[in-house]
Amino acid sequence: MKNVRKVIFATMLIATLGFGAELLSLKANMKQTSALLKQVTQSVNDSTKNAANADNAAKMIELFKTARNQTPGVGSFSEYQSLIDQCIAEFTNLQKAFQNNDNKEALSTIQKLNQIKKEGHDKFN
Ligand code: HEM
Question: What is the CATH topology of the domain spanning 24-124?
C-alpha cells in the first residue's frame, strides 16, 4: 500500500514539474511544437504577447531537446540531430527576439524555422 502511494506521488510530481515531454513520442513532441509555433506565428506582430511568446519559445526549445534524442527511424541520425540543433538555435533566437521586443527579427526567425522544418520533413518524415 505504501509503495502504491509512493508511485502515485512520484507520477504526480513528474507531471507537475513538467518532465512530461520526455515521456512523449517524437510525433507527439513535433505536434506540440507545431501548435505552439502556430500560436506564436499568429501573434508575432502583437507586442503585448512578447512575454508569453518568449515563454512559448522556451517550451519549444525543451520539446526539441527531447526530440534530438529520439530516432526518426530513417536517414542519418547525425544529420537529423544537426537539423534539430539548427531549430534549437533558431528557437533560442526567437526567444531573444521577443525578450528584446524585436518583432521584425521574430518574424524572420519564424521564416528560417519553416525552411529548416521543410528540409527536415523532406529528409526524415
Ligand atoms: C519548426 C520545426 C518543426 C515543426 C513545427 C514540426 C512539426 C511536425 C509535425 C506537425 C509533424 C506531424 C506529426 C503527425 O504525424 O501528426 C512532424 C513529424 C515529424 N517531424 Fe517535424 N517539425 C519540425 C521540424 C522538424 C525537423 C527539423 C525534423 C528533422 C530533422 C523533423 C522530423 C520529423 C519526423 C521524423 C516526423 C515524423 C514523426 C513520426 O511520425 O514518428 N521535424 N513534425
Answer: Four Helix Bundle (Hemerythrin (Met), subunit A) (1.20.120)
